[in-house]
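User: Structure tokens for both sequences below?

Assistant:
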Amino acid sequence: MTLAALIRKVLRGSLLVAALTVCGALHGEVRWLDSVHNFGAFDEEDGSVSCTFRMVNKGPDEVSVRSARASCGCTAPHYPHEAIAPGDTASITVTYNPTGRPGRFAKTVKITLSDQSVQTLTIKGVVIGSQNTLRSRYPIEAGRIKLRNRQVPFGTVYQGKAKSAYLEIYNSSHEPLHLSWRNVPAYLRITSAQDTVAPGEQGVYSMVLTPSKSDIYGILTDSVELIVPGDPDPVKIDLTAIVEEDFSRLTPGQRANAPVIAIEPERVDFGEFPGEGTIALPFEILNRGKSDLLIRRAYTIDPGITVSLPSKKVKKGKRIKGTVTVDPGQLPTPLLNARIQIISNDPDNPLAILRVVGIPAMTGDL
């Protein structure tokens, strides 16, 4: 190695040692007794909360705080502007405003000192939201929790394809809650990122509906129960979906040879009927297509009306006879005006409607 190269190597080493020494001095002049403060869980209605961070000047020279910048406008630091002599202590107060901020928080304050070093202070905690704040976000009260809604709508779900929806809850108590579920149907799976919801925090539950595990077609209405520890009654969560068959992958040839449904008559008219006792009338389902017609479901949401079929398969060119039965005592109004939905594997008309009408006979004196 030449003399010049040796000199350059020694100089680089000296500069490196000097840089490390300066960095150590910059970060070693001030010692913080604590740089993180946890407020824990507290009520939003209690108003702003404050904590104090203390530092000690361990260096041989005076030092001062040049600036204190918070990561959020909800956090306000207050610091001394006078110089801190060697061996002396100083305090920085940090105040957090929880108004309108329910849930877990973590905020930082960057402290810049006169020696150009930058220190980071951290505050964190959980805000238990006030009634006014939570009412807009979680308007439904259910004991120790609040919910955004009690109904989980899945919309249209195709057979053989799973679909997800979400339920959000809020722990409005001051204790961790280990929530559980009851009466969950086989076609539904419920999961969450956490088993326990901390005080003042949100829990999000993923609900996956898998229609292939159910024979239900058309309108699906069901419910599950959410068990909250300490509450006497479970929270009922309603589920809704419209389950349809997916015909999107049918080829033109398959559509040409598909079944074709027809209903005769399209309206079952009971005319004037008595107000007591059940009455029944027939109707027929025809298959005018080129393959078997499969009746997925025949039902109505109108009370007092039932429908029965002798078979759920109608061969090509054939027909079956169904029956509509009316119980006048169960009708919500005297006038009969109901709809029976018949769901089939006809790709062009998967939902056929059978109207049921009638007028009750007038009894008594006018």
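Moving on to the next sequence.
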Amino acid sequence: MAIPNKPVLDKAFRMIESRRGALLAELQALCRQPSIAAQNVGMAETAEMVRRMMEDAGLKAEIVPTGGHPVVYGELDVGAPRTLLFYNHYDVQPPEPLDEWTHPPFGAEIHDGVLYARGVSDNKGNFAARIQAVRLLREAAGGLPVNVKFLVEGEEEIGSGHLGEFIIANRDRLGADGAVWESGYKDAQGRPGLYFGVKGILYVELRVRGANRDLHSAGAAVIENPAWRLVWLLNTLKGPDERVLLDGFYDDVLPPSEEDLVWARGSTPEEEAARLAGLGIKQYLLGLTGLDLAVKSLFQPTCTICGLTAGYQGEGSKTVLPKVASAKLDFRLVPKQDPQRVLASLRDHLRRQGCGDFEVIVHGAEPAGRTSLNAPIAKVLIETAREAYGVEPSVSPTQAGSGPMHWLVDELGIPTGSIGVGWHRANNHAPDESIRVDDYFENMRHVALLLVRFAEV
């Protein structure tokens, strides 16, 4: 339907303001419901809450079973020429370590205008802002100017293992002219961040075994220690110059294009100093700053040790020779890098280092995804961000994090961009995850504006 833009948007914005209390309570209820995919806690209950929120917004919604946690899918076809798809996820990271939270992880408490909860930034706040924008704009206008679809999965935090299964089985009903990705954050200067790509990932666990039980550490004189073997192997994966040492690792890494460099302007010295101070560190790796820092962060792959486990780690001492040692690693990958090819190179590296007996457990593997900033969804997101926030947004051709965007961009051919409710102290995946309440409602207004403007492209 054609919408007289300003009167309807003004009405929708007034409705957002007048219903702040109720809208905020709905978000708090969603955040108070745990949905920890890794532990299978509260997943069915949260999927049902998401389905009900979609139906309340006027969508036809259903919970679609997969080989893992279900997908919640909803759509509203108003017969418009254009369709906008929203991708989100309802699962969250485990809240541990619990003793480092200053507010209950599933309490959804508000202090000084900040709402604290596991998953409020990643990703329940973004989903709630979007579905409420659809609901209120539809109510204000008596309809919508675009068809909308919501794909909300339950396994993003554990690698989206069954998202592809859902997309392939439902390809015929997932078509759209553009998509809005799950996330977005304001920087320390209050500029909303817009992202049009993500890195790929290969997440593996390496496990090495020694004797069939823990032994007295005196046995280390004559019995191999798996922890040492693991440490020596890890030391061969990356050098002090940060170069990953797997054969062929950089063969498919492309340098950033001229367009990439235009958009990846880098942070100002003041922004970098503020972030370093907030992290309690003196400098970034290799002393990088400015554009060099941005290029390394956005366009170069990584190899990171995410966790190490071996032997006794309790209080005090215990003289023990551990029977097993393990490490969890992730490789963040850039476009053209194939995670399966990287995995094969890793296995070959282990064999050449005399570690062919190491167990390699794959916890996730997906390629990178990118959308051109010339795509209509990119242009509309940037233009509406300027209008909605009243400042020049921080636009990036991609981001350092990973996600299953390739399923939308490459498999379904849907140009995709990202904007959200987060801020520079969101603490995703960490204690005291949060959003600012005002940012939540500001983003809701932006989504309403986006729905109207995308219909005009």
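User: Anything stand out in the second?

Assistant: The longest helix spans residues 120-141.
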